C-alpha cells in the first residue's frame, strides 16, 4: 500500500508534499490508498492526513481514527463538513510552499545560524516572547529549532515540525528586512536537502510577507489550499 500511496500523491508533488514526506520517513500508518483517496496517520506528530472526497462517509472515516492530535485535510469542503462535527479549536487554510531545487539558495551572510540547545531557551524567549513558551522549550530540547545570532544575541528562530514542515519563523522587529529570515530558512533548506528531504512549509494566502520570502528563496507554491484543523 505504501507504493500505491506514493504513486497517487506524486501526481502533484507540490500539493501533497505534506503527505509524501511522512511516507518517505517511514513512520506512518497508511489507512487508505486507492483512486478514491489516501489517508495516513503520522506517528511522531499524531496528525492525520487525508485526501478524500467531500462525503459523509469521508467524515465518518476521519472520526473513526482515535487519538488524533490534528488533521491535514486536502478538501476545503470536506474540512468544513468535518469541522461542524469535530469542533476543533484552530482552523487554518494554507497553501504549501515546496522547495524543488537540488541545492540550497546562496544568501549573504548577515547573521550566524545554528541549532539551539536548552541553554539558549531563556535568551531566545526574552528576545522573541511566545504565548506558548513551554512548546518552544520542547522544540529546542528535541533539537528541532535553529536560531539566528548577531553579535551573540538571538535575533530570529525557525524550526522543523515533527510532521516535517518548516515552521515558527520569526525575526525580531528591529532586525527585519535585513536578510535574517532568508538566512534562517536557507540554512534549514541546506540541512534538509543534505538528508535527502524535500523542504516545504505552509503559508496562509493573506500572509504577503511569508509568500514573498518563500518565492524569493525559490519555493513553488501550490495552487490549491489545504486545511489544518487542531
Secondary structure blueprint with pairings:
Elements: H1 2-9, H2 17-25, E1 28-34, E2 37-42, E3 47-51, H3 56-64, E4 70-73, H4 76-86, E5 91-98, E6 112-115, H5 121-127, H6 133-141, E7 145-150, E8 153-160, E9 166-171, H7 180-194, E10 200-203, H8 208-217, E11 220-229
Parallel strand pairs: 3-4
Antiparallel strand pairs: 1-2, 2-3, 4-11, 5-10, 5-11, 6-7, 7-8, 8-9
Description:
Helix content is 34%, strand content 30%. The protein has 230 residues and is of the alpha+beta class. The strands form 2 sheets. A 7-stranded mixed β-sheet has the order 1-2-3-4-11-5-10, with helices on both faces. Strand 3, helix 3 and strand 4 form a beta-alpha-beta unit. Helix 1 (2-9) runs antiparallel to helix 2 (17-25) and helix 3 (56-64) packs across helix 4 (76-86). It is built from 8 helices and 11 strands. The chain folds into 2 domains: 2-96; 112-197, 3-Layer(aba) Sandwich (Aminopeptidase), CATH 3.40.630.30. It is globular, with a radius of gyration of 18 Å. The chain has helices at residues 2-9, 17-25, 56-64, 76-86, 121-127, 133-141, 180-194, 208-217, and strands at residues 28-34, 37-42, 47-51, 70-73, 91-98, 112-115, 145-150, 153-160, 166-171, 200-203, 220-229.
